[in-house]
Q: What sequence folds into this?
């Protein structure tokens, strides 16, 4: 018992993995990091491992190449505009203004770094809230269960 008395005990914290706000934030961070790698290397293709059944019925792990579309476009003046997406929805940073003016292409990575820092700090959470009220539905279900 002398060994156990040297430990500090506490309650188990609620799982943060089921927090919809944190899930959306992490997805956005992952996608921004992919866009940053795509900006640095135009031939970048993320590879995921997936299970696939063979003809004889056994399962093997295969590489699955996922196509990424760039979130930036060039305007007629030669400047680049970055559009941030969350799922199928384009995020509007200001009312009616979903695009971020980047300027020349070499500044694209620094703008993505700024967005990554803002996402990690939680500054984009209010923009990621779904319009359907899904978060309210989930929180009400959690309250009913608890």
A:
């Amino acid at each position: 018992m002398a060994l156990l008395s040297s430990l500090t005990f506490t309650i188990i914290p609620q799982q943060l993995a089921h927090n919809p706000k944190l899930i959306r934030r992490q997805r956005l961070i992952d996608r921004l990091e992919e866009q940053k790698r795509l900006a640095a290397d135009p031939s970048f293709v993320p590879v995921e491992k997936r299970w696939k059944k063979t003809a004889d019925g056994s399962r093997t792990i295969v590489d699955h190449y996922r196509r990424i579309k760039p979130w930036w476009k060039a305007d007629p003046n030669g400047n680049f505009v970055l559009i941030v997406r969350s799922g199928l929805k384009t995020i509007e940073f200001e009312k009616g203004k979903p695009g971020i003016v980047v300027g020349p292409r070499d500044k694209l990575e620094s703008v993505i770094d700024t967005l990554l820092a803002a996402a990690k700090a939680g500054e984009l959470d209010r923009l990621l809230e779904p319009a359907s009220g899904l978060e309210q539905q989930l929180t009400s279900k959690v309250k009913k269960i608890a």
